[in-house]
Specification:
Length: about 150
């Protein structure tokens, strides 16, 4: 199969949220680990929008653990600030899901983090899947990322 992206849509989602008190650390900034939670929330919202929820993956017999994560911390966020999270799917030929993230502060547009995650497919019995599982190939076809 050949990856085609010239006519494929850009699959992305963005949303705003307010930083809650319980996400702060001792110096009143968002604790760095909470940005990973924000990215996870973005993946869940992305899945709901584009028909690729974690339960769909699980019910297809697979898990999709994060195998690689890169985060560039650019600024910090504080309590009650309004942030925007943007997640974008990165098409690949491989049996993996790659997402880019951008979290910005709404008041001034400052970039808080830039990040990328890669998730691989593993059967529920723990076997790594080296080729695209059928449900993932069908999802890619649906969005125009592969031609059969």
């Amino acid at each position: 199969m050949e990856l085609k992206t010239e006519n494929a849509p850009v699959l992305s989602l963005d949303y705003d949220f307010q930083v809650p008190f319980y996400d702060l650390d001792g110096i009143q900034m968002v604790w760095h680990g909470n940005y990973v939670k924000y990215m996870e929330d973005a993946r869940e919202k992305f899945g709901a929008k584009y028909g690729f929820e974690y339960l769909h993956i699980f019910n297809s017999g697979y898990l999709a653990p994060v195998a690689d994560m890169h985060i560039k911390y650019k600024n910090s966020a504080r309590i009650s600030e309004l942030l925007n999270v943007k997640i974008t799917y990165v098409p690949t030929r491989s049996a993996k899901m790659v997402f880019n993230y951008l979290i910005t502060r709404k008041s001034d547009g400052a970039v808080i983090i830039e990040a990328q995650t890669t998730q691989l497919f593993v059967t529920r019995s723990g076997v790594f899947e080296a080729s695209n599982p059928e449900f993932y190939a069908q999802w890619k076809d649906r969005w125009g990322f592969f031609s059969r």
